[in-house]
Amino acid sequence: MRYFAILLAGLACIGLPAAADDRYPGCNAEQSKIITDALGTAKDLTLKAAVAVGDTSDYQRWFGDYSHANAERVRASLKSVVTALRGGAVTAQCDQIADGGCNAGEYAWVFADEPYLMHLCPAFFTLPPLTALRPGDRRSDNGTREGTLVHEISHFMHVAATEDHCYSRRECSDMAQRDARRAIENADSYQYFTEDVTYYARQPLADKPPPAPRPNR
């Protein structure tokens, strides 16, 4: 089955000139560097996210009511993403908007039973890296390069076999409060959790109170 990340806020799909690349078919040199950097950062951030799984407000926001069993499943899924990235088998190709390629409004897509190839669309390269965002930046609802990679890698059957039950921060946080089972199966939930507990861990979001201060030791 084909799974994809969609464009939520009407960003233009801007194509970049393509050139042959041994590692990333259809990608030019600039795109190849963006992919390499994003994969490296995604690995580090997902590992931190796996360690951060616990009975916290971030967990509850994206995965619903905490239970040990559910938390272990979330942690295992995040660790599987890290394992896939560490193994060096994750790769990508740059697709254009066309029949058999990207649809308008897609960032990326995968066939879940074809690890570990990600198809990246022109809109993927309009996304910011996570560290380019600032607290309360509305672009965070459109995702980040690293978060999109976590989303896509989690879809693979050999990783976490996630589904696309919802898109957007508002939809997915609402769903988590109604149905924790679906939340822990949902690719966007892993993306948003990873983004929030890493870069946003010590920074206030527009709709999220800042973390309590910690004593100096």
What descriptors fit this protein?
217 residues; alpha+beta; four-stranded mixed sheet; 7 helices; globular; disordered C terminus
Quick one: biggest sheet?
4 strands, mixed
Amount of beta strand: 5-15%
Helix content: 25-40%
Rg calc: 17 Å
Shape: globular
Overall pLDDT: 85
Query: How many helices?
Result: 7
SSE string, helix = H, strand = E?
EHHHEEEHHHH
Give the strand line-up of the largest sheet: 1-3-4-2
Query: What is the tally of beta strands?
Result: 4
Question: Termini distance?
Answer: 51 Å
Uncertain residue segments? 9-20, 204-217
Structural class: alpha+beta
> What's the multimeric state?
single chain
List the helices and strands and how they pair.
Layout: E1 2-6, H1 29-52, H2 57-63, H3 68-86, E2 91-94, E3 106-111, E4 117-120, H4 145-155, H5 169-178, H6 180-183, H7 187-197
Parallel strand pairs: 2-4
Antiparallel strand pairs: 1-3, 3-4
Helix pairs in contact: 1-3, 1-4, 1-7, 2-5, 2-7, 4-7
In short:
It contains 7 helices and 4 strands. By secondary structure, it is of the alpha+beta class.
Structure description:
With 217 residues, this protein is an alpha+beta fold. The protein contains seven helices and four strands, in the order E-H-H-H-E-E-E-H-H-H-H. The protein has helices at 29-52, 57-63, 68-86, 145-155, 169-178, 180-183, 187-197; strands at 2-6, 91-94, 106-111, 117-120. Strands 1-3-4-2 form a four-stranded mixed sheet, covered by helices on one side. A hairpin with a 5-residue loop joins strand 3 (106-111) and strand 4. Helix 1 (29-52) runs antiparallel to helix 3, helix 2 runs antiparallel to helix 7 and helix 4 packs antiparallel against helix 7. It is globular. The termini are far apart. The model is unreliable at 9-20 and 204-217 (pLDDT under 50).
